[in-house]
């Protein structure tokens, strides 16, 4: 089973790119972030015609997450527990093939420091509480999406440039390390131990051409799912397509377990 995450950076404006990638790579499950579309503007017909069911949580102008699947989808929640007043469309939990898929779009947090960074840290705290509960309940689960976190110096082309950036602050790196410490497996780093692999390249200063990238998109596996990991990768070439997102799709393959 092939599971992917892709920050599309506007699903309607980049629908042709998404559909081309779905046709060429044929993932079984896809988590999308930054739909930048209200609930009623999700291109459901095009997604269905491509062979996918869909559950989505839209929001006008920004945010928005969705899960596409060739299999049946059962929605669990579209709200990260811990703040009933949080109106951002950043989280979606579904069950597919007896695995809990937690699709997330974690806040950027810039400028750092400031209110947006405080919101980011509060959001991470809520996520860690939820993820800890899933580990304790021994749920087969995947935390997947755009975390807006650069975990280590290995995950950024010039670490010194991001010291005072909310993506790479000491606080968020420490939080990510604590998250992994709960028992989650960072699948891409596990598969590419000593390699510099990126999932995001800015639109400015020819970042993609220079490979001046960041690793922001992650697929974390719970202890029950982790042993099923076979392979994974980053479809870097998609970032080079015309009118593509500044992120590239990230994917893993899990072996079937009856």
Task: Kindly describe this structure.
With 258 residues, the protein is an alpha+beta fold. The chain is built from 7 helices and 14 strands. It has a single domain, classed as 4-Layer Sandwich (Deoxyribonuclease I, Chain A), CATH 3.60.10.10. Helices cover 25% and strands 26% of the residues. The strands form 3 sheets. Strands 3-4-2-1-14-13 form a 6-stranded mixed β-sheet. It has a 6-stranded mixed β-sheet with strand order 5-6-7-8-12-9. A two-stranded antiparallel sheet has the order 10-11. Helix 3 (115-136) runs parallel beside helix 4 (170-181). The chain starts with a strand and ends with a strand. The mean pLDDT is 97.
Which helices and strands occur, and which strands form pairs?
Elements lengths: L1 E6 L7 H11 L3 E5 L10 H6 L3 E5 L7 E5 L4 E4 L13 E6 L2 E7 L9 H22 L4 E6 L23 H12 L3 E2 H5 L8 E2 L5 H4 L2 E2 L2 E5 L7 E6 L1 H4 L10 E5 L4
Parallel strand pairs: 1-2, 7-8
Antiparallel strand pairs: 1-14, 2-4, 3-4, 5-6, 6-7, 8-12, 9-12, 10-11, 13-14
Helix pairs in contact: 3-4
Pfam family, one: Exo_endo_phos
Family: Belongs to the DNA repair enzymes AP/ExoA family.
Cofactor: Mg(2+); Mn(2+)
């Amino acid at each position: 089973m092939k599971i992917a995450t892709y920050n599309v950076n506007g699903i309607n404006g980049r629908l042709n790119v998404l559909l081309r990638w779905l046709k060429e790579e044929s993932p079984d499950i896809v988590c999308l972030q930054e739909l930048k579309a209200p609930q009623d503007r999700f291109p459901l017909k095009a997604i269905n015609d491509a062979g996918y069911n869909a559950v989505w949580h839209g929001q006008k102008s920004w945010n928005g997450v969705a899960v596409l699947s060739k299999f049946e989808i059962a929605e669990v929640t579209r709200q990260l527990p811990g703040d009933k007043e949080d109106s951002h469309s950043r989280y979606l939990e579904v069950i597919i093939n007896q695995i809990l898929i937690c699709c997330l779009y974690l806040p950027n947090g810039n400028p750092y420091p400031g209110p947006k960074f405080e919101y980011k840290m509060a959001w991470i705290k809520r996520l860690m509480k939820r993820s800890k509960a899933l580990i304790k309940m021994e749920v087969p689960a995947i935390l997947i999406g755009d975390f807006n976190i650069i975990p280590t110096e290995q995950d950024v082309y010039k670490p010194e440039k991001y010291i005072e950036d909310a993506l790479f602050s000491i606080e968020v790196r420490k939080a990510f390390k604590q998250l992994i410490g709960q028992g989650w497996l960072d699948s891409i780093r596990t598969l590419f131990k000593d390699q510099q692999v990126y999932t995001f390249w800015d639109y400015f200063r020819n970042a993609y051409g220079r490979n001046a990238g960041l690793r922001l998109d992650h697929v974390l596996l719970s202890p029950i799912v982790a042993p099923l990991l076979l392979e994974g990768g980053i479809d870097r070439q998609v970032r080079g397509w015309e009118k593509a997102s500044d992120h590239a799709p990230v994917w893993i393959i899990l072996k079937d377990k009856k």
